[in-house]
Amino acid sequence: MLLKSKKEKIVKDLDKAISDSKSLVFVNFHGLKVSDETMLRKELRDKGVDYKVSRKTLLKRALSGKAKGEIPELGGEVSIAYGADDIAPAREIYNFQKTHKILLNILGGIFEGSFVNGQKMMEIATIPGREVLYAKFVNLVNSPIQRFAVVLNQIVLKKS
């Protein structure tokens, strides 16, 4: 059993983490082995994402008044992934789940100052990174020019 002072310190730490982050993801980690969790923490840390496990009651206390809307249903064992990037916490949890075949469920989160459900956080997690979006944009801009060059080349070949 935790002492009241210890609980207050945990809530204060959670409050600081929530306030300092741009987005936050609620993760159900039921059945996660210690070795897998250690690997998860290392990979998240390398990507600039922090990860904390907390009691749901203390987490709900720290979340009160932090975002618009209603807190999503937090079932099972709950942890939070958070960071300074808007999309990184959701994307990194999703990528870890996908690559390691481990049962991690995204329950919801906080995005742009509002609570969102698990489905919305999954959509956010699948948004490509900035470099990929830049590459797609350059390809989109370059495609008509490239096609025009091919057409001009074909006209030159027919006239020869």
How do the strands and helices of this protein lay out in sequence?
Elements: H1 4-20, E1 23-28, H2 34-46, E2 49-53, H3 56-63, E3 78-83, H4 88-100, E4 105-111, E5 114-117, H5 118-125, H6 130-159
Antiparallel strand pairs: 1-3, 1-4, 2-3, 4-5
Comma- or semicolon-separated keywords:
Alpha-Beta Plaits; 5-stranded antiparallel sheet; 160 residues; alpha+beta; 5 strands
Short overview:
Helix content is 56%, strand content 18%. It is built from 6 helices and 5 strands.
Report on the architecture of this protein.
The protein has 160 residues and is of the alpha+beta class. It has two domains: 4-127, Alpha-Beta Plaits; 128-160. Helix content is 56%, strand content 18%. The chain has six helices and five strands. It has helices at 4-20, 34-46, 56-63, 88-100, 118-125, 130-159, and strands at 23-28, 49-53, 78-83, 105-111, 114-117. It has a five-stranded antiparallel beta sheet, sandwiched between helices. Strand 4 and strand 5 (114-117) form a beta hairpin.
CATH superfamily grouping of the largest domain: Ribosomal protein L10, N-terminal RNA-binding domain
Count of individual domains = 2
Average pLDDT level: 88
Q: Terminal Cα separation, in Å?
A: 88 Å
Report the uncertain regions: none
Q: Any idea what the shape is?
A: elongated
Structural class: alpha+beta
Number of strands: 5
Order of helices and strands: HEHEHEHEEHH
| CATH architecture classification name of the largest domain | 2-Layer Sandwich
Largest sheet: 5 strands, antiparallel
Helix content: 55-70%
| CATH C-level label of the largest domain | Alpha Beta
Number of continuous helical runs: 6
| Strands side by side in the biggest sheet | 2-3-1-4-5
